[in-house]
Design brief:
The chain is mostly beta strands and 234 residues long. The protein contains no helices and 14 strands. It has a domain of 89 residues. A hairpin with a 4-residue loop joins strand 5 and strand 6.
Length: 234
């Protein structure tokens, strides 16, 4: 079974203000869908997340058919809410909130399961400067194309890397663990995109990759973390 999750647009197709995929749910909404025939047909369900949710991610538990997790950004992408379904989307758990600091914006997250059903989530945490930098002006202002690494049109900012895992299939998550040894400096203005950030898990380790500017240019960094290092939330 293949699965996907996405957020619909706000376009109203009916008089009640909902779009076609959202059905009776307010639009925009997050759709979770599965296919058993390589995409020829799909079974779609609305995930009960607030309309302000962003960037849904989906992961499948290979140890339990029908068990999936969907994570979304909330509160201005300062936290993640993780929902799970054990019946391929027909019903959903209450959200579990994951964040190391709810005052800092997150970007480029990744969600995955281990072969034994341990979900893991990694993310960048943007480190705000001591004082707001002056806003650039003009059509060629630097930072305008820096995507999720910048606040509006400001310069990209330093960041560090965090991860958390769940030892009970997604019901609770560990205390977030800082993965990077030091902050990455702000990226070069205009260096948008990220093909590095990822988390993969096996029975004993979480493997986290990310881009880092400490060498003076963007390079791929990697860390293998024993699952035993992730401590239960106090």
């Amino acid at each position: 079974m293949l699965a996907a999750a996405f957020k619909t647009g706000p376009t109203s197709l009916f008089s009640d203000g909902n779009n076609e995929l959202c059905g009776s749910a307010p639009a925009p909404c997050v759709i979770f869908q599965t296919t058993r025939d390589s995409g020829v047909t799909w079974s779609r369900h609305v995930v009960p997340v607030p309309a302000t949710a962003t960037g849904p991610m989906v992961a499948a538990d290979p140890s339990k058919p029908g068990h999936f997790a969907v994570a979304v950004g909330m509160n201005g992408n300062t936290q993640f809410d993780v929902y799970e379904t054990r019946d391929s989307g027909q019903s959903w758990s209450k959200p579990v909130t994951v964040t190391e600091d709810a005052s800092k914006r997150k970007s480029y997250p990744w969600l995955n399961y281990s072969p034994t059903g341990v979900p893991g989530l990694m993310w960048r945490s943007i480190q705000a400067p001591p004082s707001p930098p002056p806003a650039p002006s003009g059509p060629s202002a630097p930072g305008a194309a820096a995507g999720r690494l910048s606040f509006g049109n400001q310069q990209p900012l330093p960041y560090n890397i965090w991860a958390a895992v769940s030892r009970d299939g997604g019901a609770t998550f560990s205390e977030p663990l800082k993965v990077s040894a030091a902050d990455s400096p702000a990226g070069r203005p205009g260096a948008a995109g990220d093909d590095y950030s990822n988390i993969v898990l096996d029975r004993d380790y979480a493997y986290v990759g990310w881009p880092d500017w400490r060498p003076g240019e963007r390079q791929g960094f990697f860390r293998a973390i024993p699952l035993s290092e992730f401590k239960a939330k106090r």
